[in-house]
Amino acid sequence: MQFAEEVFEGVGAGLLSIYRLAVGVAISVPPIWYFLENDTFDLRQAVVIEVIGIIFFCGLCILSFISQKGK
To answer: How much is the average pLDDT of 57-63?
Structure first.
């Protein structure tokens, strides 16, 4: 049973890292897009991506809090 707990803890930490990466990408893409491709920049799409990133960031905070609370 101890082995299963260690495996699930490792998988959970890996998924949390992937989630962190996705949040970082969603938050950082619109400013990079604006400066590198100003002629194709669409403010509406950029705002949607930013809002999704912020929502995911809030979820990430909750998951991190739950993860730390369980230890």
So the answer is: 88
* Per-residue pLDDT band at 28 (split at 50, 70, 90): very high
In angstroms, rounded to a whole number, what is the distance separating the alpha carbons of residues 30 and 43?
9
d(CA 43, CA 49): 10
Residue 4 neighbours by CB distance under 10 Å:
8
Give dist(CA 7, CA 21) in Å, integer: 21
What Cα–Cα distance (Å) separates residue 36 from each residue in 29, 30, 39? 10, 10, 9
Sign of CA dihedral 5, 22, 47, 45: negative
